[in-house]
Amino acid sequence: MFDLGISKMALIGAVALIVIGPEKLPRVARTVGTLLGKAQRYVNDVKAEVNRSMELDELRKMKDSVESAARDVESTIRTNASDFEKNLNDEAHGVKGALSGESSAGEDSFYTADPYAESYGSTASSVSPVYQHPRKNWRVKRGATPQWYKHRAGVRTHVQSGAARVARFRPKSRGPKA
């Protein structure tokens, strides 16, 4: 920007000393310094705000691209799942119709028996198991309590013998008296 060397700074200082005077020069120099500091902080704040807005725009673009990719994956999974379910229902209705002797194309219920049970060597049709929520274990619940709460509530976290407990809380001796 400006090419200010030592000689130019000395010339500006000499002119300021002559024009302003030696009594007012320190106060003017402090004022100019504070104004320059404020200007630098303002410029730095503007630069930081511009950088933040640019990063925010980049993050928005990235978010949009990730959301579109997620939507594409979701749509392909849904179409594949619906095709698989349709094929499974068709196979189930075909097996059910073959077992009963007639084709029931009008039914729209989901067949829960395993159509491939005969290939596994099972004579009876096996039914898929129903999901059961695992029972909570009291040890797991007790282990989930934070250590700071146990300490505050006085829950013992370590096993300690009676003698060790007495020794722990025994008052400290002050040393030999002279």
From TrEMBL:
<dbReference type="InterPro" id="IPR003369">
    <property type="entry name" value="TatA/B/E"/>
</dbReference>
<keyword id="KW-0813">Transport</keyword>
<feature type="compositionally biased region" description="Basic residues">
    <location>
        <begin position="167"/>
        <end position="178"/>
    </location>
</feature>
<protein>
    <recommendedName>
        <fullName>Sec-independent protein translocase protein TatB</fullName>
    </recommendedName>
</protein>
<keyword id="KW-1133">Transmembrane helix</keyword>
<dbReference type="InterPro" id="IPR018448">
    <property type="entry name" value="TatB"/>
</dbReference>
<keyword id="KW-0812">Transmembrane</keyword>
<comment type="subunit">
    <text>The Tat system comprises two distinct complexes: a TatABC complex, containing multiple copies of TatA, TatB and TatC subunits, and a separate TatA complex, containing only TatA subunits. Substrates initially bind to the TatABC complex, which probably triggers association of the separate TatA complex to form the active translocon.</text>
</comment>
<keyword id="KW-0811">Translocation</keyword>
<keyword id="KW-1003">Cell membrane</keyword>
<dbReference type="Pfam" id="PF02416">
    <property type="entry name" value="TatA_B_E"/>
</dbReference>
<keyword id="KW-0653">Protein transport</keyword>
<comment type="function">
    <text>Part of the twin-arginine translocation (Tat) system that transports large folded proteins containing a characteristic twin-arginine motif in their signal peptide across membranes. Together with TatC, TatB is part of a receptor directly interacting with Tat signal peptides. TatB may form an oligomeric binding site that transiently accommodates folded Tat precursor proteins before their translocation.</text>
</comment>
<keyword id="KW-0472">Membrane</keyword>
<feature type="region of interest" description="Disordered">
    <location>
        <begin position="157"/>
        <end position="178"/>
    </location>
</feature>
<keyword id="KW-0997">Cell inner membrane</keyword>
<comment type="similarity">
    <text>Belongs to the TatB family.</text>
</comment>
